[in-house]
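As the work plan foresaw, the team has encoded backbone shapes as discrete tokens. One protein thus recorded appears below exactly as we store it.

:::
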Amino acid sequence: MPRGRYSLHDPHDHTPVAEEHFQCAPGPTGWRYVSRLTDPSGSQTGSVDLALDELGRPIRLELHAADWQVRGAAIDGVTWVRTDSTGTHATEGNVRAHAFTGTSPAFLIATARLLRLTPSAAATRVRLVAFTDPVLAPRTVDQSWALVNSETHATDNAPLTVDEYQVTALDTGEQHVVHIAGDVVLAAPGIELEDLESPPSTFA
């Protein structure tokens, strides 16, 4: 069960945004990731709880940020309910999309797991609903994912396979690279892996 800490920063000016303390693990029905976010002063600012089924589809998502909460799942595309802390302002949403995304590294793992790309495969288009900080506002985004390289490195424990993805935002054409090993993001724009207590899990 990998457990560790990511630092999140603005990908443009590198201003520190948060630290995400996480643990994740595959299970009999898929994969689960839970984390809590703290600001640079150490105060908790939010949390992530994401569960995937064996095909990589989100069967449960719960996000907390500031005074907002989102609960969602893959139902008729993806469906979610967004509420404030008092529960008086609740809105439902549904989009014909494949999955969710956001600032948490969990969503990069989830998208890679959903697409199951191979280095020889063409780039694959995916539609996602992104929840943007700090108010978890939903926004539909279209991306293209391609697995451009997969390398296995020797480690003290066991061989570690690192996958390099090229991700393209189809509305702007902006491209970036994501490095993933098992169920841990090693590097991505705005994300740095600062601490890892145990090796990444491997998916069957």
Notes: The two ends are 15 Å apart (CA to CA). The helical segments are 105-115.
